[in-house]
Each structure stands twice: as structure tokens, then as C-alpha cells.
Amino acid sequence: MSFKFMEHLISPDEFKKEFPLPEDIKRIKEIRDREIADIFEGKSDKFILIIGPCSADNEEAVCDYIHRLARVYEEVKDRVFIIPRIYTNKPRTTGEGYKGMLHQPDPEQKPNLIEGLRAIRHMHLRALQDTKLTAADEMLYPDNTEYFSDVLSYIAVGARSVENQQHRLVASGLDVPVGMKNPTGGDLSVMVNSITAAQSGHTFIYGNDEVHSSGNPYAHAILRGATNKNGINIPNYHFEDMIRTYNMIAAKDIKNPSVIIDTNHSNSGKKYIEQIRIAKEVIHNKKISPELHSFVKGLMIESYIEPGSQKVGEHVYGKSITDPCLGWKDTEDLIKYIAETV
């Protein structure tokens, strides 16, 4: 084999003992998880906002941002359910570039995955204890999910991972909602098949064990746009796209049929300011359509303290070092608009 084995990782159980979740926070997570499940089951009509930085690269700035979210959440929580994005794993199309806090707890230093795990856990615990908001992350590496399963209330499977068998199988054993994005090429049947697989029970190898999953009834769709063979972005947040997705899912035996609309990525062409217009269009279409009213459960928005993005090493506090994000002023205005309109 051509691998150089660097260091043996601590097990998820040992890791959680090293950074335990306080009992009061466990109860808060249970309450929030139940609220989210009620939304997907149609028992609550609150609108979900999965919102935050493209990548959580700096604990101070991320926690500052989540504090701001918590303050505005107090004003809108009767209509909107906010789930902060604390995305710590970043897929890279070519394999080059910053791969997230897991790989590099300091984006300007060499990779250190053990310290990355610790940095992520510390950030989650701090954000939870300070704001009482449980977060979302992307399941880029299925085997790592157990390290943070007790702090996450939402998990996304990305466009490059949604066809992967292990991602689908692990999603089937999780007890929080898992959003399946459409693949980068845009084939919605791939996404629907992934939802079906995640909602089914399976026997498979996970870590060092043979396990059996019972199926995840909260696996659902995320529309994030696509890119055609010529590299042109093809949005899929319009009325016709959402109705098409609704009909495809309705034709299957899928529990709690739901979709989240990703307002960035190929839907916006990574033009971050377009997220405002896209969010407003989605909410309008949700209001005028009986099918979409119950089907569209929320939005995924990339937002940080400062608008836009910067290169690693530029050190603008609260500005994305990956994809461009909405700034805080636009974010706060948009959240309040959504709460008043949805």
C-alpha cells in the first residue's frame, strides 16, 4: 500500500468522553430535534432557515455570528426555525484548497486532523452553551459522523456525495433530518433514489462493526442547482422545478415528503447577493401553491458577518475564505422579511 499511516485516531466514544455534552444542553437538543421533526412531519408550519458561513473557519467569528443569529431568532421564532450552519468539511472539486476545519483548524497551517476534531468539538460546545442553537453540518466523511452526532440537529449530503452508497447507508441510521442534494449534473432521479435508500433499513459495515439501520423517515430533498456539460449553471429553484420535484417524490413511497431550497451554489451562480431575490421567489411560490405550501420546508443560505469572500491569509474578520456569503445587515433584513412573509 502507498499510504503513510500518520496517527491512530481516538474512537468516537472516547472523544465524546473527553468533550462531554452537559445534561442541560442534551435536553435543549432533544427539544430542538423534536421541533425540527414536527416541521418535517407537518405538525408545525414553522419555516426552516439553515443559515451561516460557507465554511466555519474561525471559532471567534463563527460564535460571534451565531450570537447575532440567536438575537434575531428571539424576534422571529414563532414563524421561523433557525439552524446555524457550522460547516467544517469542505469538498474540493480538484482536491486542492482549504478542506475545512477538520483538516486545518488553522487555515494557514499544515493539516492536523486530530486537532481538527478537537477544534470542531470545542466550537460546537461553545456555540451550543452560549446560544442554545443546535447546528447543521455536511456529511462529507461518513465515518466521522459519530464524533459529532450528539451536537448536530441537521446533516446535509452534498452534490458530489449523494450517489455514494456509504453516505446513503449512514444517513439511514441517523436520528436527525438528512438533506440529499441533487448531484452537480442535475439528475433529480439520483436525489430521489438517495432519499428512498436513506429512508430504508440496511445492514452494512460502519467503522469496525456490522450494523443495521432502521431507516431515516426525515431524509429529504435539497435543490441546489446544477451545471451542464458546458459549465453553465442551471438553477432549479423556480416554480416548475419545485413542482417537478414534488411530483417525482409523490410518485414514490417516501415518508414526510419535503424539500429545502439552497439559495447559493448553482442556483445563484455563487453570486451571493442573488440569494435575497431567490429566497423571496421561493417564498412567493410556496404561498401561492397548495402543493408547495406543505412541501417546501425551508431555505439554505450562505451568510457571514462581512459580505463576499477573501483569500486565505487576508484576515478580514468574519469574511468567508471559501464561497462568497451575504453580510450580516442583509442577512438580518432577510430573516425578518421571511418571518413577516412566510
Could you walk me through the main structural features you see in this protein, from its secondary elements to its overall organization?
This protein has 342 residues and is an alpha/beta fold. The protein has a single domain (12-341), classed as TIM Barrel, CATH 3.20.20. It has 10 helices and 12 strands. It has helices at residues 12-18, 23-41, 59-76, 113-131, 165-171, 188-198, 239-250, 274-288, 290-295, 328-341; strands spanning 47-52, 80-84, 135-138, 152-157, 178-181, 202-206, 209-213, 220-223, 226-227, 233-234, 259-262, 296-302. Strands 2-1-12-11-8-5-4-3 form an 8-stranded parallel β-sheet. Helix 8 (274-288) runs parallel beside helix 10. It is globular, with a radius of gyration of 19 Å.
Task: For this entry, give a set of tags.
342 residues; TIM Barrel; 12 strands; single chain; eight-stranded parallel β-sheet; alpha/beta; 16% strand; 10 helices; two-stranded antiparallel ribbon
The tally of beta strands, per DSSP, is: 12
The CATH superfamily title? Aldolase class I
- Low-pLDDT ranges: none
**Averaged pLDDT:** 95
**Number of helical segments with 4 or more residues:** 10
How does CATH name the architecture?
Answer: Alpha-Beta Barrel
The number of domains: 1
Derived from helix and strand composition plus strand pairing, the structural class reads alpha/beta
What does the radius of gyration come to? 19 Å
What CATH calls the topology is TIM Barrel
Element pattern in H and E: HHEHEHEEHEHEEEEEHEHHEH
Query: Per DSSP, what share of the residues sits in E-state strands of 2 or more residues?
Result: 15-25%
User: Rough shape?
Assistant: globular
What does the largest sheet look like? Answer: 8 strands, parallel
The level of helicity is 25-40%
CATH class descriptor: Alpha Beta
End-to-end separation in angstroms reads: 55 Å
Trace the largest sheet across and list its strands. Answer: 2-1-12-11-8-5-4-3
